[in-house]
Amino acid sequence: MDCNGCNKCTEVHCSIDTKCQQLDRNLMDQWGAISFPIYQTATFAHPGLGESTGYDYTRMQNPTRKQLESIVAYLENGKDAMAFASGMAAIAAVMELFKPGDHFIIDSDLYGGSIRLFNEISKKNGLTYSAANLSSDDVTPFINENTKAIYLETPTNPMMNVTDLEKLSKIAKEKGLLLIVDNTFLSPYFQNPLDFGADIVVHSGTKFLGGHHDTIGGFLVVKDEELDEKLRFIYKTTGAGLSPFDSWLILRGIRTLAVRLERAQQNALALAKYLQTNVHVTKVIYPGLPEHPGYDIMKKQARGFGAMVTFEVDSVEFAHSILNNVQLIYFAESLGGTETLITYPVTQTHADVPKDVLEKNGINDRVLRLSVGIEGIADLICEFNRVFAIAKEEAN
Length: 396
Ligand SMILES: Cc1ncc(COP(=O)(O)O)c(C=O)c1O
Fold this sequence. Notes:
Number of helices: 13
Structural class: alpha/beta
Strand content: 5-15%
Shape: globular
Distance between the termini: 54 Å
Bound molecules: pyridoxal-5'-phosphate
Low-confidence stretches: none
Strand order of the largest sheet: 1-7-6-5-4-2-3
CATH class of the largest domain: Alpha Beta
CATH topology of the largest domain: Aspartate Aminotransferase, domain 2
Helix content: 25-40%
Mean pLDDT: 96
CATH superfamily of the largest domain: Type I PLP-dependent aspartate aminotransferase-like (Major domain)
Number of strands: 12
Oligomer: single chain
């Protein structure tokens, strides 16, 4: 990229790669530590009556967590970010914005844990929801006088459906609804939903932001001050803030977000193309393939296609054989780390989703989900060659 001579590089960084390195220097400690310290303290001393260092009690705020929140808000082009003990804690906090009788609309394909929360907790608290396929359905008929929000992922977990955020946000604004977007699958490296009209961005920080399968965390990011105030109140009152040590781990993960995601995306595209060549693979769903129905929308609203690939094989036995025989790839839940993981949605991430919902979304017992890591691509392909050969032999 050529320098255009704007001389603003220290304030408005030209690239997100640089942004990932930019800790908030206003928050840095007196010694100038480049690795931001872990402030492992529950409480903070007051210099005197009515005086404060800016920190009182770690449930409210902590310097390490504040540093992390500052960089996540910056990466998402938000005004504020709140770091939670998990992605689910972040989503549960959002639901505290609503009152009994309120209604919201969800995308029918979502992380199974979110669906479980809406079915088992939100319903009990008097909230109702309607599920729509937001990547294809018109949302308008689902809106009623009690509707307060639309909640979605794009791309969705695990079927990788892509929704046009700009189009949906226009409807949400017209109808006075909050637009809540779980951006976990792409991370702020590839997509910034607030720029396309979202009101709240959700992340499981456990995934690409943390990046190493070594911590659990979550985020909410907002632009609007009034909404921020409401969520901050819920945050300090319900107390699901991320610990200083876990904040530090995610801060460290973010330093390499750009390089990890570039490499993982490259591997994901190569694997998606490779999987298409196997006769036992009946479907490969990756939004970076031009034939994916969401490809053009992705090009409009994202800077990349991510590292998640879902595929379907021709028999349950074939799927089970793959899961039983992977060696380089781990058969495990979760996503977004440096290692490639293979997940079986029907028994793992979506085990608590009602059968009819799974069926409607095409999530059957032949569907497998890959979170592609940063290994050498030749090794990943070699692993699949080996595993496919075993599965074929077992089928004969
Ligand atoms: C898209 C998505 N959102 C939210 C979550 C929940 O995050 P956590 O496991 O950090 O609570 C997950 C977990 O897999 C997820 O895949």
